[in-house]
């Protein structure tokens, strides 16, 4: 099911990034290109992060940046970026982050199935470990395709 | 009893916490209404218990006795342990 959203186009792997903002921008770029989101959506995430902290860092090594539908979502979308060397999101317990999953929900219910599958993946520590250590996009997608 | 899962936007991570909370409550045979919301709309009078990440708890304005703070929102075992601990104090 996740393979419908996480594809050759929306999943990327990089060695390192300068900072968390660059990580989010890189992660979001496929969704900007296919018009699922507007640049305002990324700015909304930055602004919320600066106001209340890294609310979307879910677990050790895992971040799921997202804002609200009305803040620049055209349609439901999901993208993923693996940062091999990790990046600090200023999360007290969960830095460094390796896996960034950008969620763009266009209303408050249509993304429920997507989130259910993502939660199942994130809870499977062996599979997450495999993704953290992936060398390329194919290795990430091999895990994703099982969810 | 009302339980509210809270995150920055009210539809991503808070929703995952809501799903896990419902699973834990079912296991513990505790009856409660579980919802999710964004930080701005989570005020102390809206629920009996609020669940959020450590990164949010400081700015939430929710009193400590109505708060369960998670380090890892995916980890259902941490959630269960902290809910059990919370209910034991009631």
UniProtKB/TrEMBL annotation, chain A:
Q: InterPro entries, from UniProt?
A: Ascorbate-PTS_EIIA_comp (IPR051351), PTrfase/Anion_transptr (IPR016152), PTS_EIIA_type-2_dom (IPR002178)
Question: Major location, coarse class?
Answer: cytoplasm
PTS EIIA type-2 domain segment(s): 4-147
Give the superkingdom in one word: Bacteria
Listed Gene3D superfamilies? Mannitol-specific EII, Chain A
Q: Which UniProt keywords apply?
A: Cytoplasm, Kinase, Phosphotransferase system, Sugar transport, Transferase, Transport
Q: Does the keyword Transit peptide apply?
A: no
Asked if the Swiss-Prot or TrEMBL record annotates the protein with the keyword Transferase, the reply is: yes
Compartments annotated for it: namely: Cytoplasm
> Which Pfam families does this UniProt record tie to the protein?
PTS_EIIA_2
Q: Which PANTHER family match?
A: ASCORBATE-SPECIFIC PTS SYSTEM EIIA COMPONENT, MANNITOL-SPECIFIC CRYPTIC PHOSPHOTRANSFERASE ENZYME IIA COMPONENT
Identification of the protein by name: PTS sugar transporter subunit IIA
TrEMBL record, chain B:
The record's CDD domains line, in alphabetical order, gives:
PTS_IIB_ascorbate (cd05563)
Which positions fall inside the PTS EIIB type-2 domain? 1-90
Could you list this entry's UniProt keywords, alphabetically sorted.
Phosphotransferase system, Sugar transport, Transferase, Transport
Q: Does the keyword Transport apply?
A: yes
Q: Which InterPro entries match?
A: PTS_EIIB-like_sf, PTS_EIIB_2, PTS_EIIB_2/3
* Keyword hit for Ubl conjugation: no
Q: What is this protein called?
A: PTS sugar transporter subunit IIB
């Amino acid at each position: 099911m996740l393979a419908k959203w996480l594809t050759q186009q929306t999943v990327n792997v990089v060695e390192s990034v300068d900072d968390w903002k660059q990580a989010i921008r890189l992660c979001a770029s496929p969704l900007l290109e296919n018009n699922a989101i507007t640049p305002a959506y990324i700015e909304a995430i930055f602004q919320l992060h600066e106001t209340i902290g890294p609310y979307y860092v879910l677990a050790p090594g895992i971040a799921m940046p997202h804002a609200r539908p009305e803040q620049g979502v055209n349609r439901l979308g999901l993208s993923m970026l693996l940062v091999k060397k990790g990046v600090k999101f200023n999360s007290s317990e969960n830095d460094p982050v390796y896996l960034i999953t950008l969620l763009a929900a266009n209303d408050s219910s249509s993304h429920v199935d997507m989130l259910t599958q993502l939660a199942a993946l994130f809870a499977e520590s062996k599979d997450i470990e495999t993704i953290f250590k992936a060398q390329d996009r194919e290795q990430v997608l091999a895990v994703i395709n099982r969810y | 009893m009302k339980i509210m899962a809270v995150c920055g936007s009210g539809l991503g991570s808070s929703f995952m916490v809501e799903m896990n909370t419902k699973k834990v409550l079912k296991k513990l045979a505790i009856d409660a209404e579980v919802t999710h919301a964004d930080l701005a709309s989570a005020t102390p009078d809206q629920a009996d218990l609020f669940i959020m990440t450590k990164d949010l708890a400081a700015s939430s304005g929710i009193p400590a006795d109505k708060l369960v703070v998670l380090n890892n929102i995916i980890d259902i075992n941490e959630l269960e342990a902290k809910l059990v601990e919370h209910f034991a104090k009631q």
